[in-house]
Amino acid sequence: MLSYLLQRVGLAAITCVFISALTFMIIRLPPGDFVDAYIANLVASGSSVSQEQAAAMRIEYGLDQPVIVQYARWIGRVLQGDFGVSMVWRRPVSEVIGDRLWLTMVVSVAALFLTWAIALPIGIYSAVRQYSIGDYVFTTLGFIGLAIPNFLLALILMYLGFRYLGLSVGGLFSPEYVQAEWSWGRVWDLMTHLPLPAAVLALAGTAQLIRIMRANLLDELRRPYVVTARAKGLSERRVVLKYPVRAALNPFASSIAYLFPYLVSGSIVVSLVLGLPTVGPLLLQALVAQDMFLAGAIVLLLGVMTVVGTLISDLLLMWIDPRIRLEGRA
Amino acid sequence: MAERTSLAVRDLAVHFEMEQGTVRALEGVSFDLHAGRTLGIVGESGCGKSVTARSILRILDRPGRIVGGRILLDPGAPGETDLIAMNAESERMRGIRGGRIGLIFQEPMTALSVHYTVGNQIIEAVRQHSDLSKAAARDRAIELLREVGIPRPELRVEAYPFQLSGGLRQRVGIAMALAGDPDILIADEPTTALDVTTQAQVLDLLRRLQQEKGIALMLITHDMGVIAEMCDEVAVMYLGRVVEYAPVLELFTTPRHPYTRALLRAVPSILATPRQRLATIGGAVPHPGARPAGCAFHPRCADFMPGRCDVGAPPPLAPGHAGASCFLEVPA
């Protein structure tokens, strides 16, 4: 069990190194180096830089060194929280991303829990009562949920929320809290704004997970161990919840790994529509403006988050499935 | 025979309502189970053996439905109960399931959940049918594992099924079936998935347990060797009907139904000359949805009498009496 754990953590670390190398390549991808881009930027805004100044900057940023050394320096700074300077914002990348990263995670995790809270019970119901009226209703709703583009749903919900419930829609904060320092009032304001974006982000994933859960559970319900459990005289409820549902959770847990980055990167359009101060729209802007340090930092963070998500799902699988725990393989 | 009759199945009929039409899986099956005796149920795949077992426990999966007959627990006794009249999910039926009637499975690999320890799954069954505390139920589980011949049961109780061999798993299955202390055991092909040596051990175990506890055993199999070794009486099933019922010795010496004779001919003999072709029964079991008219066996029967066997069905057997449901038994 311990060796499995160490193996997983080790693999995760190695993957992170590869991701960082890839990110570094992306940052260096545009022609010229950072100083060229910086000078071009300054020239565009009217000031100029001498050759000596440029050379001094190159030395200062280590751009005269071999690529490997540059990478090592860059990763060293990244590990200290210094992601470089955003050319568009003219501020350190870490400052630009700042709160957005945490807000993104808050929204994503809220959406994730909402997805599970809706998808699990409905999936179980749909499988146990296959072809019942309820199953058909949920299936229909699920497919509608899959088919409607998220941003459209966001617009509709915003309209309904504003028109009939008088909610302050858009963004994660009321106007008076947008620039405010963190306080209990601001946290509460965040909580009240969270349901709408979380619901919009959760719904498509929910429809998908309902289908996955239903299909998994239908498979498991036919297995002999379910008959064994029934033959013991257990109540049907206990039989279903203890045995097949547990087995059906297995692929469910694996899906966490890619659900997390999906919620972040797949939510760009929704975030734009809802005006959410999350990482998604920032990534879009950075890519359009070729703001490579900012884009690189976001890509790196998304990559690392995916790896962490995978690690979490591995740990969950270990907890769910004793075969993995005891044999170190699925 | 003065044995107590534990369970009487009468005219049991089960239909599966499919989109393609109704499949008559069982059509009037009758037999008795006696305390301390073993009834063998034999027949090809699809003849309704497992459906019979699940019907008795009332755990038949949809779209299967019991459409007729009675399943009497303790027939003739003051507490006689018709299981078919009961709600399958009722407290009382759940008490009978596992508590009076235990089920042993065909597949020791898949019949146990891999997600819980052997102990967890047995303790659950023990506590379902008793008021024992967790600790006491655990002791009982260890005792049960010892009883079915599992070495070092106090360690094995913590093992997961995938850590045990097939033979040990089947023993665990038997221990689980015994957890509610039932007096009737239904074993659905308990040795089919095991190698021959392990088969013999498991059969010995079943016989020993039956003798110690006076259990009424219903042994479902398609293995004539197992029938010969284990059973007191035998019911031969074909397409949802009992076509012959006889004491085991009689069945092997003077089989009366052409289907039984064909089954016995198909058993490979150690006395056969080398390269001799194995006897087979011509054709295949028809799909239960496309049941032949008249006697269902007539298209494959060596003694087929045109104008008789394909016109009407032979009279069903009277329960508890040896005989064959065949026109050969009925004077024209």
UniProtKB/TrEMBL annotation, chain A:
It is a multi-pass membrane protein. It is found in: Cell membrane. It comes from the Bacteria. This is ABC transporter permease. SUPFAM superfamilies: MetI-like (SSF161098). The lineage of its organism: Bacteria, Pseudomonadati, Pseudomonadota, Alphaproteobacteria, Acetobacterales. Keywords: Cell membrane, Membrane, Transmembrane, Transmembrane helix, Transport. Belongs to the binding-protein-dependent transport system permease family. The chain crosses the membrane at residues 9-27, 101-124, 136-162, 194-213, 256-280, 292-320. Residues 101-313 form the ABC transmembrane type-1 domain. Gene3D superfamilies: MetI-like. InterPro entries: BPD_transp_1_N, MetI-like, MetI-like_sf. Pfam families: BPD_transp_1, BPD_transp_1_N. PANTHER family: DIPEPTIDE TRANSPORT SYSTEM PERMEASE PROTEIN DPPB-RELATED.
UniProtKB/TrEMBL annotation, chain B:
Keywords: ATP-binding, Cell membrane, Membrane, Nucleotide-binding, Transport. It is found in: Cell inner membrane. It holds the Pfam family ABC_tran. It is a peripheral membrane protein. One of its GO terms (molecular function) is ATP binding. The keyword ATP-binding applies. Belongs to the ABC transporter superfamily. This is ABC transporter ATP-binding protein. It comes from Neoroseomonas terrae. The lineage of its organism: Bacteria, Pseudomonadati, Pseudomonadota, Alphaproteobacteria, Acetobacterales.
